[in-house]
Amino acid sequence: MLNLNDPTLLREAVPVGTKWIAADPATGTPVYNPSTGDLVGYVPNLGANKTEEAIAVADKTRRDWAAQTAKARSKVIRRWYELLVENQDDLAAILTAEQGKPFAEAKGEIAYGAGFLEWFAEEARRAYGETIPAPIADRRIVVIKQPVGVVAAITPWNFPNAMITRKAGPALAAGCAMVLKPAPQTPFSAIALAVLAERAGLPSGLLSIITGDAAEIGGVMTASPTVRKLTFTGSTGVGSLLYGQCAPTVKKLGLELGGNAPFIVFDDADLDLAAEGALWSKFRNNGQTCVCANRIYVQAGVYDAFADKFAEKVNSLEVADGFAPGAQIGPLIDDNAVAKVERHVADAVGKGASIVTGGAKHDLGGKFFQPTILRDATAEMVFASEEIFGPVAPLFKFETEAEVIAAANDTEYGLAAYFYTKDMARSWRVSEALDYGMVGVNAGVIATHEAPFGGVKMSGLGREGARQGLDEFMEEKYICMADV
Ligand code: ADP
Prior knowledge:
Layout: E1 13-16, E2 19-22, E3 29-32, E4 39-43, H1 48-67, H2 70-86, H3 88-99, H4 103-123, E5 130-132, E6 139-147, E7 150-154, H5 162-174, E8 177-181, H6 187-199, E9 207-209, H7 214-223, E10 227-233, H8 236-246, E11 252-256, E12 261-265, H9 271-283, E13 293-299, H10 303-315, H11 335-350, E14 354-357, E15 372-377, E16 392-398, H12 401-409, E17 416-420, H13 424-433, E18 438-441, E19 460-461, H14 466-471, E20 474-482
Parallel strand pairs: 7-8, 7-10, 8-9, 10-11, 12-13, 12-17, 13-16, 15-16, 17-18
Antiparallel strand pairs: 1-2, 3-4, 5-6, 6-20, 11-19, 14-15
Helix pairs in contact: 1-7, 2-4, 2-5, 2-6, 3-4, 3-6, 4-5, 9-10
The structure holds adenosine-5'-diphosphate.
């Protein structure tokens, strides 16, 4: 069992409407630690009825919440943020137990996740409208912002805390209610958030969590006319399916989908900085983020030098159980993820790539895979077009700026891109030429509360975090005031 300061944070129950529903081990869904295979606990196996109930209660409670002042809502969300910070170690331990990422990295995620609550508690009070000069003398044009209403959220397992706070923070700050379906692999991080939301004084019924069959729950969420917005983070396949399911009720949509991030190292780059940036851009969360470098393009003149520097850093990564001191790389989430990276490596080697380091399962066994670098990657290899989502770094060689921009953009995705150069003119030129929602120039990890996160093309719709993140949960209403 996990050794928590506050064991009540690991709760085998979910809040639905105004009640908590406890898991029955006979019918509930087990959650296992991906590192050890140990049972973490059970969550209830719920379906259509409870989803409908949660939506109905959300619709009842949201109006009183929206009628409160922005400052009153802000205070609750601020308190929620403080409780996350106060319970950082316990929340991180729950996260490591169910997701596998190293404890230090899990603590980092809790701080990052809490930061969205802090940011949106602040932004709640800045939902400014506008006044517009009217074309008729006795009229006034006023635009106000109002909450969209009931929001459904579906979240992934790679950031079990932060992907929820990045949605629930702005939704609740705006005055919405939320019904959340967390990933089946990581429900306990979501539940712990709800326990703390209750303690922070969030009115009952505003945040429900439904665990159970994804397609059934998602089906009710998307079909419901009461739900006015769906916010989803996950794969492009599921995202586009949900997009279609939302069409009949014309919902607002926020979709944070897959990526295929290019990471470009030009001849004039600071190679030490680039190797360090590539290390964290690629291997953070064991390569399991949608903004992880997927294709590393290195200009011919520095290809060998970069490969050497990068390999030295990758070889020093500590692969271990997430609770082991000094762990930097944990297990992959499940056996399918391991099979996928094995398939990517075999495909590349079969087409002429060579292994610089790694390339196989780790001696630790189970879901552990060696941090891997491949040389001589080409556009014919599967990872050129498919997200790896694991610890495999393919190095592609290029000659000219025009060639690498074309290669970088030659994908259906458009989430994050990175490049390293010391040339100022090139920095602007390449930033503008990349068809991506986010670009890191001499920076390999760029997500932050203050900046709008999101993609173009098949990587999704809308932005999260930043000022824009609040707008996503609000509608603008135009009021025309005429004199009587
Ligand atoms: P991954 O392959 O990384 O798990 P998914 O897109 O499958 O990514 O999962 C992201 C979230 O979407 C999870 O909460 C998952 O349970 C949910 N999900 C998967 N399939 C469906 C579906 N058909 N309807 C609704 N939600 C789904």
